[in-house]
Design goal:
Arc Repressor Mutant, subunit A; homodimer; DNA-binding; mainly alpha
Chain lengths: 237, 237
DNA sequence: CCACTATATGAATGCCATTCATTTTAGTTA
DNA sequence: TAACTAAAATGAATGGCATTCATATAGTGG
């Protein structure tokens, strides 16, 4: 028979290959490369298969749906969230460090947020690891155990919402023809960030001048949340 | 010729109809009915056309894309956000009332959030009207004009993130087999909300016992944000 | 009255996730 | 070692999706 040896870069024969071609790790990395190159609209099962030099249907031996792929990506990204501040400094510094890095990571991956926010953390080891470190930081700071999760959820909600805001265009608050009906709002938009000085923390928790509107809003809200939550850390509900 | 009069409920002939069949308002209402019945996965251009007794392509004479339909829906919903608290009470009461209703409205419409958070408010009159009322409330309370928008964006980010949380299943923090690796986190999840009493505001701003975990987290975060932001209302950045 | 524009139909297009029958190979067990 | 089972690939469907285009008809402004 012909076709005894496969062509160098040619099509694979059908059937289980001698060496494994796919696997969760390879799928995750390919998905990340695809997202980096083409964004989330470019992340299709066909494109993923093409990049892995595989038929689309082969992916379904390793993931049960595209949602599964998103889960893999999400958990991989969680490892990039900085939890080191909880061990190193005060609770406030730990939260600042964690929240800025968390937002910055997912600002480039907002399509994952509707998935993360609603899917159980089961089988997401990096995610669980992150929550464990954050919980430890809260406990060490003397938080009442029954309020820790609520506080984390509140911070996370703010972080997720803020990640969307990073991708908003500069003119998002341009009322256009409706400006005449909203004079106060239009004026406030025009004067946004006119002041100087620095109260908002930057990426590593240092006090720097925010470089963008979304940074300013995030810094303001985060400092407000840190102060406000701290005041409630032991009060009864 | 036959077919002089159209059948009672039969197919319309091709060509412009004597009376207008579609229009932004009718499309918006049909979309809302569809969402209420089948959720956002049921909101397809085909289903919309079917409900309106029209061919799918006819919709494109009134909207330029499905995103346009989502915009129409979004702006319609904004009218349901309660801004009356800003005129009636203190700034704190106004924000509470607004934030709870805003979250409650969009908790049932989370697929809109990625759209809202990123699309300009131009041609969204209800949305602009809402922002105008909120801005007025901030100004009346003595906020520095250059910080108002940042504060609103911070609150809105928290609201959007919290809207997702409403739809999270109860077992979202169940670590499953990973529980052994995250003892502190697992314990905190188990003890979540074990306390009693009430500090969190409920829907209308009254101090009631939160009925769900997401209500508790939202109440805690909102009160923290209100306190923390108020402290920063005039400080220089 | 005539050209133009608005608005409908219906048929196509191309992309997408997913499924299924089939094939080949890797382990596991007798 | 032979036989059986499970894993993992191919390639050809399937059905749904948003969107486009050619065509037909009706109101409107010159």
């Amino acid at each position: 028979m012909e076709n005894v040896a496969p062509a160098v870069q040619g099509r694979r024969r059908a059937g289980r290959p001698p060496q494994p071609v796919l696997g969760s790790s390879r799928i995750t990395k390919a998905a990340l490369r695809l997202i980096a190159r083409d964004g989330y609209k470019g992340l299709t099962m066909s494109a993923l298969a093409r990049l892995l030099n595989v038929a689309p249907s082969a992916l379904y031996n390793h993931v049960s749906s595209k949602q599964d792929v998103l889960l893999l990506v999400e958990d991989h990204l969680m490892a990039g969230v900085d939890i080191s501040g909880f061990a190193a400094g005060t609770w406030q510094q730990g939260v600042r460090c964690w929240a800025w890095s968390y937002r910055n990571v997912f600002a480039r991956h907002t399509p994952l947020i509707p998935v993360i926010a609603v899917l159980p953390v089961t089988n997401a080891p990096q995610t669980v690891k992150m929550y464990e470190a954050v919980t430890a930081g809260f406990q060490a700071a003397g938080w009442a155990p029954e309020r820790i999760i609520d506080a984390i959820v509140a911070l996370e909600s703010f972080i997720f919402g803020s990640a969307f805001d990073v991708n908003a265009p500069a003119e998002i608050f341009d009322a256009g023809e409706l400006a005449a009906d909203a004079p106060l709002f239009t004026q406030a938009v025009a004067r946004r960030g006119a002041g100087t000085g620095a109260a908002a923390g930057a990426a590593a928790g240092a006090a720097e001048r925010p470089v963008s509107s979304s940074d300013a809003a995030f810094g303001l809200g985060l400092e407000a949340l840190i102060d406000g939550l701290w005041a409630h850390r032991t009060m009864a509900r």
